[in-house]
Amino acid sequence: MIPVSWYLVVSVLLLACGLVGLAVRRNFITVLMSVELILNAANLNFVAFARQLGDVAGQVFPVFVITIAAAEAAIGLGIIVQLTRLKSTVALDAVQEMRG
Amino acid sequence: MQFLVTHFAQAVFMLLALFCLGGAVGVVLFRQPVHAALSLLASFLGVAGLFVLAQGEFLAAVQVLVYAGGVMVLFLFVIMFVNVRTVGKEVQYLRPLVPAAVVGALLFSALALTALWALSRRPLQDPSPLAMVEGAMVGNTEAVGWVLYRDYLLPFEVVSVLLLVAMVGAIVLGRKPKEGERP
Hints:
The complex is a heterodimer. By secondary structure, chain A is an all-alpha fold. Chain A is 78% helix and 0% strand. The longest helix of chain A is centred in the C-terminal third of the chain and has 31 residues, at 57-87. Chain B is built from 8 helices and 2 strands.
């Protein structure tokens, strides 16, 4: 039997990786991948606690999270396609039009 | 050997955790987006394995189908669409890499310590069996289906509308602008 704290540690590590990637990477595509990592960490927590508390509802919410992740990936990649058309780059530093 | 037999689930968990965390680190570190995407695929498959270990068989299948299948193909397609050769030469990391890594490490330790402290204060009871629908033991997929379509029908419909909106938005974003139209 695997204790729930192991799952929490793995999930926190995934979240930390995702957040560092979100902050450090300057490439739009890898930033989107980091967001997927963060959502995966949340899913892992949901499933771990569904197991712990014996409630299947904890396995229903990841379905919604996965749906939203797919929607976000589709929109984000659409924006990337437009960005490469407009500026022929995927570097986030190139997008500074709305800078104050 | 006896240790491995008695702690088989733990050993598999460690292996899968290593798999998915190694993938996650690779996403942050690899310069080339293709390498990062394949690393992310490893991470997704590791998470799917962890779902199986936590009795989430249906979710593991969804994870493999939607993430490793759909989202990953989308990412790879866009990476191929965008010219990768020019991408590799651009600035890939924020300049103050060390402060960012320190902040990430601090965040991780704060969250992990909080979780472990809370668990040590009030240990959780033994996990109760999953996959119960009105007292009868059923398969995981059936149990998830019951809860999804009975208790969470409205969120399900809302999320399907959201998916439709996202699909239309992606199509509108992806099309070429017409003559004389601002992109």
